[in-house]
Amino acid sequence: MPGEPVTLTIDDKEVTVPKGTLIIRAAEQVGIEVPRFCDHPYLAPAGACRQCYVQVEGQAKLQTSCTVPVAPGMVVRTQNTSEAARQAQVANLEFLLLNHPLDCPICDRGGECPLQDQALAFGPGESRFIDAKRVFPKPVPLSPLVGLDRERCILCARCTRFCDEISGDRFLELFARSAGERVSIAAGEDFRSPFSGNTIQICPVGALTATPYRFVARPFDLTSGDSVCQHCSAGCNVRVDVRRGEVVRVLARENPDVNDAWICDKGRFAYRHADAPGRITTPLIRDRGLEPASFGEVLPWLAERCRTGRVAFLTGGRLMDEDYYALSKLARTVIRTNDLDHRRAFHGGLAEVVAAAAVTDRERSVTYADIEHAPVILLAGLDAEQEVPILHLRIRKAAAHGAKVFVVHPRRTRLYDVAEHLPTRPGHEVFVLDRIREGVDDGSFEARAAAALRSAGAQGIVLAGERLAEHPLAADLALAIASKIGSRFCYVTRRANDRGALGAGVHPSLLPGGRRFGVAGERAEVEAVWGPIMASEDGRDAQQILQACADRSVDVLFVIGADPLRDHPDAVLARRALANVATLVVQSVELGGLEPFASVFLPAAPAVEKDGHLTDWEGRWQRIRPVRDALGISRPDWEIFAGLAAAMGSDLGFETLEELHEEMASLFVPRVMPERPNVWAGAGAPQWLDDLTLFTYPLLVDEGTLSDRADELKAALEEPAFAEMHPVDAEKRGLVDGVGVRLTTAAGDATVPLRVTDHVAAGSVFVPFNQPGLAANTLLSGRSTASVTVEAVADVESAASAVPDAALATGPPA
Amino acid sequence: MSLRFEPRLTRDWGDPSVIGLEGYVAKGGYQGLSKALAMTDADIVEVVKSSGLRGRGGAGFPAGMKWGFVPRDTGKPTYVVVNFDESEPGTCNNRELVERDPHRLLEGMAIAALAIGCETAYLYVRGEYLWQSIVLERAIAEAYATGHLGPDVQGSGKRVDAVLHRGAGAYICGEETALLNSLEGLRGQPRLRPPFPAVEGLFASPTVINNVETLMNVPDILVRGAEWFRELGTEKSPGTKMVTVSGKVERPGNFEVPLGTPFRSVLEELAGGVLDGRTLKAWTPGGSSTPMLTAEHVDVGLDYESLAEAGSMLGTAAIMVMDDTDCVVDCATRMVRFYAHESCGKCTPCREGSWWATRVLERLEEGQGLAADLPIMHDLGTNLLFRAFCALADGTASVINSSLQHFPDEYEAHVRLGGCPLKVEHLEEVLA
Hints:
Oligomer: heterodimer
Order of helices and strands of chain B: HHHHEHHEHEHHEHHEEHEEHEHHHHHH
CATH superfamily of the largest domain in chain B: NADH-ubiquinone oxidoreductase 51kDa subunit
Strand content of chain B: 5-15%
Strand order of the largest sheet of chain B: 6-5-9-7-8
CATH architecture of the largest domain in chain A: 3-Layer(aba) Sandwich
Shape of chain A: globular
Radius of gyration of chain B: 22 Å
Number of domains of chain A: 5
Number of helices of chain A: 26
Structural class of chain B: alpha/beta
Largest sheet of chain A: 7 strands, mixed
Number of strands of chain B: 9
CATH architecture of the largest domain in chain B: 3-Layer(aba) Sandwich
CATH class of the largest domain in chain B: Alpha Beta
């Protein structure tokens, strides 16, 4: 264990660091920079570049400070006080530059290049090398996202070590040896890792470059802002680079509490959304067509309809905490309804209430640090790599430290090489979880998981994902396991601020802080701040709201940062609802497929233009600052809500962000948690059905609007729609890998190519939710699973053209 | 000094029957193993320690001490790995030892395995040694068939399995941690130490890696005792050593000599003197990676201490002899080119420095050298020595530094004359 303090001197400065600290890190503690290339604080020591020589008294040879741990009383001399170390560093830089092309003026890295910077600071100044340099064809595309220039490469092996140690996606490797050694990838392979961009960022030269950023900007042209990624609930800290108002690059910002130094490729490369051509920056109101208008015209018009009509709200999962809070209050105190929901169709039961309540109390949450040090982690209904990629990396880190990882999921996840998987038919998770909860002792997966969790005690972690929320009992059962054993528990939602929406009460039965509307004492706590809440009963969830719209029993529907046509797991219902509701208010950055239905458009500012907080899956609040001014007259969502309240002759009670924060703070205080269940009536034995269960969830890179125009990302990682089926089921139906199949459910049908693979549980069929060629919600009726029949078709091509994708855009039915 | 002693490693070289198990046993083979089976692990280690046997692969680390470092309480298996990746230029004595007497290696290996409680021993064979692999595979099959290897060694109930693994032709894989990587199916590049192989070696388990010749000394030490072993050689370098003599001599070949034998005896008595009666100019005592010496050092004894005192190393005891018609710059170019080619690429000084040195040396030898190249060569020697990740680059530096130290005039002549002064016809061209 680190911790035992060791005192040494570096350049005559005394420093005390924990035992095991490397000299190079100890030097940083006292502000001494030793030049380095291969060293990276999140990678294992390599000692490859040999740049960080220091002199250690008593050692005949110079030592590489990136590989040698400190020792008590050690006397270290860096280039600052040792001529030998300085001379060796100069010589090593001369070696590194022998074959380097020195094409800095046309290199993307020029101006922010560690080799350039350190050559200037510590190098020999000029070259004595007069022979011909090594040449390679360049750049070699490793994928549509990453280009490799082997002439610039100094073979520090950071990229190959990242692939090996961090992502586990071992695409890059050093090939050949001696002066011909080079980074490369197997012939015919693409660098298909969702973490590939990290290798570009940690490359200490311009050898790995990002295709979307190639020749786009010089560092001194950029305005940079610190932000938090909005693509998923990982909460990754990022830096957004803007050139002349346009976002041109996103980089990971180091935060050891959250994302270490990594982000996924979606976070890094899907940034053109804010500058999409469809961006609308003024309100629109439907007269003959949708015409531009001012907020002054639109809000009173809207206020009138809200006063007289029945109103409901649907939001996405990516607004700010402040936006959700303002909406929650607007709905309850001004509109007087509980008909608001941010979810699609997932109901996390008590687990969801616990997650909402935990937002007020970080102590109760599971954190990245807990994951990193957990000896046992059980994931149920969660495909971490595809849903929350950086959580996936942290679980891998835990596994590398020796953690035992168990996964209950209908489809094999990318943790397969470090975890034990139990492929579980959708809906059958309850039986598996119940056996774990019971603590069966029959040598099964469940027995191993239960035993491991018990041995880990309070250090063990149970993570429940959205797939569990499909079943009314499953998420609560996962919570029950944790309660019984004493493990830590977290309900991991996918979207960037699902947790914030939950916490703020954008939910038909939850008020801020997980307070239940139906529990008088909890409601009273909110009313003490808000004044009376006039609604009389729990509201309707997303499915029920859409049903009510379709039945014309809702008059005004607000769709805020969401697209039910694509997101809601019942495309037919969503379309009927939008067509039938009298007034559809779309509040977003663009209209997209909602254009034919919208009565009013309210221009919201995207995250790069907003000030506020996001709550990540842990329940951690992180502040985002605007990277640029809001375009046109678009405004943060909370301001629009406050404007609407004012137009209705009311008042949300805050006009500035500070006032809003002050009010929020009074409700977001640690409070007594709802009681956790610790007994459970047995779930019984699974009923094995002969039919197949279709299940779906979104893959990381798909047709979602935030990935608009991220063409290189999609070229690298997006796959066209497909269906996966277990070999046993395929054989029974005489289906083979690669054939076209027609999937028929109660809601509709679709034709896609079939993959026969034992990566899915028997009895199930997987289709991705939103890949090109299939919007899977056209096969669903309000839940993300459905009974499905599968039959071979002669020709995929002709059938694929019948995909309802195009039908969606045609507007309301006649 | 006259070389009269009872040969040890080479004593049965005249008898081809020892290649087979029957012949080997008839000459007393596998008795060392029997003896070891009757001893405790600790006693085996103790005997080898007191014999003073030092590693014959180059570094000369005491073998018994190496065995003694292996922790036995880790809950992991322990491994013996035989380093038969003999690749140092000028070195081929392991090869002949195995070709002529393969069972002695297997016996030594099995004894080492018993000493550290190892049940699986690996033989890592240089990729190019196909015939020697076949010889060893046959010997292993014989040893299994007769119970000297396998699940029940000589009926003792102890298991020693042997696995032969052929390398893919990389010099670096003779470096023990690169060898371990290669054996595990990884890229042949050296590993960071610590952890040392004795603690975390093959498959992250305690591992002893011994050279072929080291292990072949072990059976006799068990049978005849440590004191007997010390009867030859010097106090600090006991025993005999195989030397490989090549280059400008009348009779090149592998010879066994007691450690401490002066180079003159080897050159004159065993190798028949310098070829065609010419004059000795330079020689390497332990392969091309050990600093070259000159005619001045002809009386230096071939043992670890004497050679260190003379500014070089025993290395693999591969003696390459250059005479007065050989160009030192040309020799250095060939040697450095080898190390540049064999650099594994992991670290900067070795990968780039040896490549640069080759460029400069080739230019010098071709007559394109500049005055500025000499300080560059001096700097390269300095900047390669003790700077790289492993010792490979120290070999490169040794060639550069020793050739510059002993033959500075020859380097200068290459620049001054615009070519190699020893290529006479070329010289006349230059002077014309």
